[in-house]
Structures are given as structure tokens and as C-alpha cells.
Design brief:
It is a single chain. This protein has about 130 residues and is of the alpha/beta class. The chain contains 5 helices and 4 strands; from the N terminus they run ββαβαααβα. Helix 1 links the parallel strand 2 and strand 3. Helix 4 packs across helix 5. It starts with 12 loop residues before the first strand and ends with a helix.
Length: about 130
Amino acid sequence: MADKNGRRDRPGIRVRRVYDAPEPDDGTRVLVDRIWPRGLAKADARLDEWAKAAAPSTELRRWYGHEPERYAEFARRYRAELAEPEHREAVDHLRELAGHGTLTLLTAVKDLSHGHAGLLADAVRGHR
């Protein structure tokens, strides 16, 4: 099955906004942001886990500032971070969760096509 960007995806890994209502087929719901989403009560998030170590570093996140013209460089730098031990362990853990059923990566980012969660989903799938 191809996603909206035309990539063929292994079924079972989804990327959604944490503010969206949970869906029955979300499976394991994991927040992959380093900071807690603004305005969201923890009780309303309905998370199974919060994987802060899978998120971009604070330095990288601040540099990027969600400016689309910086996305290619952000993606390169984030992929490099994901190869570092702390991030690699987080990706391995997410991969293990995905092996047990649907995994939904949640983020507060408004523009999912220019956010880190899609890049993280690719890393979990084993794509570079």
C-alpha cells in the first residue's frame, strides 16, 4: 500500500497528530515529541508510551523551526541523530513494538509532511 507521498509502506506503522481523536486501529500509541504537546492534558492523550529519545534533539528542533525550506537539511541531520546510540535504541524499541501489531507515532507537528515523525517511521521500517 502506498502512502500519500507514493512510498510503499510496511503495514502497521502510522503517523498521526496527537490532537486527533484515537482510532480503533491505532494499536500502540507512542508520542515521539521531546516536549509535551501544548494544551493537551495527559489524561486526554491516551498514550501507551512517550518516546522522547526518538525525537530530534532540542538543538536540531530549534534550528529547524519547522521552516519548509530547511526540511532537506533537517532530514539529513535527524537521520544522522537516529544513528547515535540513544536514538538507535529508541528506534529499535519502536521497531519491536511494531512487530507486535499496529504502531501509531504521534506528534504535535501541524505539517506532517515536513515533520520528524514520517522520517522516524521510515527509520523504524528500516528505510534510510
